[in-house]
Amino acid sequence: MNIGEISYTNIIPLYFYLDRERLMDQGATITQAVPSRVNALMEKQLVDIGGISSFSYGKNAENYSLVPDLSVSSFGKVNSIFLFSKFKIEELDGKKIALTSSSETSVALLKIILDRFYGVEVTYKTETPDFEAMLNAYDACLLIGDDAINAYRKRGSYHVYDLGEIWYQQTGLPMIFAVMAYRNELETEQGALLSYVGRSMIESKERCQRENFVPVIERVITEHGGTFQFWNSYFNGLNYQFSGEHEKGLNLYFQLAVECGLLKTMPSIIKYSYK
Ligand SMILES: C=C(O[C@@H]1C=C(C(=O)O)C=C[C@H]1O)C(=O)O
């Protein structure tokens, strides 16, 4: 079994307390990459289970199911998914926007927001995430994850829009950025290990929450810098559950993606039941 691990700080609580040695002993490997790469590896069947963009689940729902009670979501500001713009969002009609090549969920979310909530028509191009280079060549750029956190520190006088906040203001529902999904074959091929991994991720998340994310924050500061206060409010602003509210939010996102022509059909949300 190959487990995909998004290489951003936001998903760390689901993986922090995994017993990696025990997983290795059971024949599991872990591959770290940005979301769009984990999504692609899972489509190619090179990753079997992992945190992936919720949009990628939507595209592949016939072949994937969800590990219950896990997600990377926000009820409002997410603080790491930003549109940086030279113009106010209402004034973006006819402008050029650079999209980070690392994301799938937020790329579709931006398209939904501009099309359905603001009624502006823009042209998009995908670029490697580089704040300065993107804004040298475009009117606005979308960055996510650690790239967005770093760019925010250099935002200067650009207009900055948090896509989690816009989604929540417009819909009153949480935005689900990542889900924990697995390829359906895994259930018959490696059911026991699948259960173990799912349960371990839930335990990891719950322990991080009980500890108020303190050990996670300490590790993140040594790797990325920043203050305790910043990372404390970052992790506490994220939500790692998958409740009925989350399912409503995800279904609305999928429905709008279908209406905007970003998804071909409305995906069904299927959840694993532990044996
Ligand atoms: C909160 C974030 O969520 C991430 C955003 C993703 C996307 O846009 O495809 C995918 C996985 C999430 O971990 C972030 O990266 O800032």
TrEMBL record:
Keywords annotated in UniProt: Lyase, Menaquinone biosynthesis
Bilayer-spanning residue ranges: none
Biochemical pathway: Quinol/quinone metabolism; menaquinone biosynthesis
Catalytic activity from the UniProt record: chorismate = 3-[(1-carboxyvinyl)-oxy]benzoate + H2O
EC number: 4.2.1.151
Functional note: Catalyzes the dehydration of chorismate into 3-[(1-carboxyvinyl)oxy]benzoate, a step in the biosynthesis of menaquinone (MK, vitamin K2).
Family note: Belongs to the MqnA/MqnD family. MqnA subfamily.
Record's protein name: Chorismate dehydratase
Species: Fictibacillus nanhaiensis
